[in-house]
Structure formats: structure tokens, C-alpha cells
Amino acid sequence: MLPTSPVALARAGVAYPGGVQGMAGVDLTVAGGEILGVIGESGAGKSTLLSVLTGEVSATSGTVSVLGQDVGRLDRAGLRRLRRDIGVVFQGVHLLSNRTVRQNVEVPLDLRPRRERSAEAVDDVLRFVGLDQRADAYPAQLSGGQRQRVGIARALVTRPRLLLCDEPTSALDAATAGEVLDLLRDARDRFGTTVVIVTHDLDVVRDVCDRVALFDDGRLVDVLAIAPAARRERESYLDRARRELGA
Amino acid sequence: MTGQDDILASLGASLVARGDDLIEALGETAYMLGVSLAAAVVIGLPLGAAVYLTRPGGIVPQRIVWSIVNFLINVIRSFPFLLLVVFLVPVTRAVYGTTFGTPAATFSLCVVAVAVYGRLVEQILREVSPGIPRVAQTLGATVPQTVWRFLLPEALPGLVYALTSASISLLSYSTVLGVVGGGGIGDFALRYGYQEYDDVLMYFTILVILIIVLVVQAVGQRISVRLDHR
């Protein structure tokens, strides 16, 4: 029987052609409504984990269950249906540059049957990310933080039960990154979304995650609960600069 | 009378005598360009997209399909156009029942338009950030949805600009079609200017062609810039 958790991996591994082991023997369960951080150095297997969860890469051993479905057993159409129920936030955002903010956010709905499209869902999610006043702007007219908020709105417009984030704040300054992380936490609080954040930034984990999975050399080496005491008051970029760089 | 007056008088006389022919030639050129550009968009665009999609490492790698289409596009583009027209004579005859006249001559122009625009489309799609098809895939888009909802909107300004360039090349190609009775403005310039030694009329016709090119270029560039929000 498949687990009811949004994400469950059992002895999951990925061996790439040529014998490179992307991931090996990973046992990991993410509870509904949880925010899980995934950290590790480059090449530790974080990106492989995300690719396995979206079905872009197939596990070559073990099982991977996402939203109650065994990803390895899905055919192409099944994978497409599963992906439409998952939100993904990318490091580079990758918005359509010749489409407005609203049109970019609408894109996931456009892929669905007409009866499932809703203009209110778009308005609602644009208000949620605070960009309802910039709905007619083009991505080039936005700041990096605003573009990432559009990326989050695009990922949330279908109200996915699972949100996967690939280094969502790495291109942003600390204050803007904080706003983006607040949004991810709000998404969990408001919609009950389960969130998996792949990052190399310990501050991200400390600020929003409930637990963190530590990857090294393709293996899951530890899963830690984040102690509430570890969370810090958020400080502005300049305050942090004064504190860390000042004499 | 000054030399300038002589030239104007000569041009005036030529235009009185040949004006109707010139307008007819312009109509033939418009027909050839219109039909071949339509072929470029209707057939060349999907063909270029197919090469992009099926290439090794593409979204739906299909080595055999890719090799065949890619080879055909290369072969057609490397033919000197006049020889392509001659080469296609049997096919043109089979399709139109004749090889003579504007519609039949347009056939070979369509073939070249499809190949030229197809290659341009493929190159423009290659320039789209690889992140865009990846987003499409993770959002659960089908291949047609990836093309229509992601790749074409992202590439649209480039595609419009490429169509402008293609139309200018086709105008140039079309001047050769007088050889097979295709008519058109290029044929007009050759017939009256070259064969009947009416230099003034020939230069005037070339000026008309130049103006057409400049107008097409300006309009295409304007539309392309208007569509581009990068």
C-alpha cells in the first residue's frame, strides 16, 4: 500500500548512465503541511531528489511516492497529471518575458480543461504575493524579488498540495529573500501546502523549515528538527552588514 | 533641356508606355511573396519547430525524423535558386499541369521559403532559455502546449523579425522566376531595362524594389520591437 504522506521515499536511488550515483538508499517521509529543508554541498544529491519528485529523473532503485502515487509506475500522461498537482519554484524563475505578470501566473491554468480555469484564482494568488497592482507589468519591469514572487504565484495558482522549491532565494538579497520565505510559510499556513525547499543557505532552513534533511554524496545522512530557539529576529541587509562587517 | 530633364522625360514616356505592365508585375510579385510567406508560416514554422523538438537532446529526441528533415532543409537551402527551379520542373508540372506562369513559378519559391524560414525558426527556438521548456515540462504541459504556450510566445519577436528577413530574401529569389514565365517586378526590370536597353526604366524599377524592401524591413522591425518586452 502506498503511504498517505505527500512525499515518501523508500530505499530510493538514482544511478546515472556511466555509473554515477546521483542518489542512493534514501528513506524520507514528508508529512502533510510540513516545510522540509534539503541541504548539502554541490553534487550532494539535492537536485537529483527534486528531479525524482517531479518525475524528470526516474529512480533506478527503491520507490518514490508523491501525492499517493508511485512515480516510477506512471506513464507519460500519468506523470503530466501528477505534475499539474505539484507547484515548482525555480532558482532562475524562468518567466515568459513577453507575457505580463497575470499571463505568466495564468499559464498553469491554461494547461487544464477550460472548466477548471478560474480568474478569481489568479486575482487571489496575485493579492497573496502582493503583486495585484503589477498584474499588467512585464517581467523585465520587476525587481528580482518581485519576479520570484511571480514564480511563487505561478506555482500556487493551482493550489497544489505539494510545493517544490529549488534554491528559491539564492539570487536575492537577505531582506528580499526573507519576504520570499515569509510567502512560502504563509502558503503553508493558509493553504496547508507541503513545502520542500532545496537550498545551500542555512538561514533559509533556520527561518522557515520545520525539519531539515542533510545530504552528502548522494546519501541522506541526517534529518534534524529545527529548534524554535534557532530562529532569529530578521534583520535588514544593512543591519546585518554592520553587525558582521563592522569593527 | 538639361540631362535631368532628359531622364525625367524618358522615364515619363516609359511609364506611359509600360505603366500597366509595371503594375501587373508588382501584382505578380505580391502574389508570389504572399503565397510563399504563407507557406513559410504554415509549413516552415512547424517544420522548424519539429527540427528543434526532435534534435538529439531536444524535448522529444527522434533521431531519424530529425536527420531527414534537417537534411532536406540543408539540401534545399544549398541549391542555387535558379537550379532549384529547374530541378523542380517535373514536380511543378505534376502539381500544376504546367511549369509556366506565376502560380506554377511560385511553387519553387514556396519550397525555398519553407526551408529558409524553417531553419530560421529552429535557430530562434534554440535561443530560448532552456529554463522555459523545463518549466513547461514540470507544469505538466504536453508537447503541443509546450510549443504554443511557452516556446512561441517567448520567441515571437524573433520569429516576426525572421519572417521579415525571409520575405526580403524571397523578393530577391522571385526576380529569377522570369526565366520560367513567373513574371514579377524583377522580370519586368530585366525585360524592359536589360533586353530593351531602357536604363532609366530599369533603374526606376530597382528603386521601386529598394523601397519595397525598406518598407517591409521597417514594418517588420516595428512589429518585432512592439512584441519584445525583454
Automatic annotation (TrEMBL), chain A:
Gene3D superfamilies referenced in this protein's UniProt entry, alphabetically: P-loop containing nucleotide triphosphate hydrolases
Domain ABC transporter per the UniProt entry, residue ranges: 2-242
Domain of life: Bacteria
MF term (GO), any: ATP binding
UniProt keyword annotation of ATP-binding present: yes
GO cellular component: plasma membrane
InterPro entries in the record: AAA+_ATPase, ABC_transporter-like_ATP-bd, ABC_transporter-like_CS, ABC_transpr_LolD-like, P-loop_NTPase
Key words of the record: ATP-binding, Nucleotide-binding
SUPFAM superfamilies for this protein: P-loop containing nucleoside triphosphate hydrolases
PANTHER family the record matches: ABC TRANSPORTER RELATED (PTHR24220:SF685), IMPORT ATP-BINDING PROTEIN (PTHR24220)
Protein name: Metal ABC transporter ATP-binding protein
Species in which this protein is naturally found: Microbacterium oleivorans
The organism's taxonomic lineage, starting at the top: Bacteria, Bacillati, Actinomycetota, Actinomycetes, Micrococcales
TrEMBL record, chain B:
Taxonomic superkingdom: Bacteria
Residues annotated as domain ABC transmembrane type-1: 26-220
UniProt keyword list: Cell membrane, Membrane, Transmembrane, Transmembrane helix, Transport
GO biological process, one term: D-methionine transmembrane transport
Entry keyword Lipoprotein: no
Transmembrane segments: 29-53, 65-89, 95-117, 159-180, 200-220
Pfam families with a match to the protein in the record: BPD_transp_1 (PF00528)
Gene Ontology CC entries for this record: plasma membrane
Topology within the bilayer: Multi-pass membrane protein
Family membership: Belongs to the binding-protein-dependent transport system permease family.
Name of the featured protein: Permease
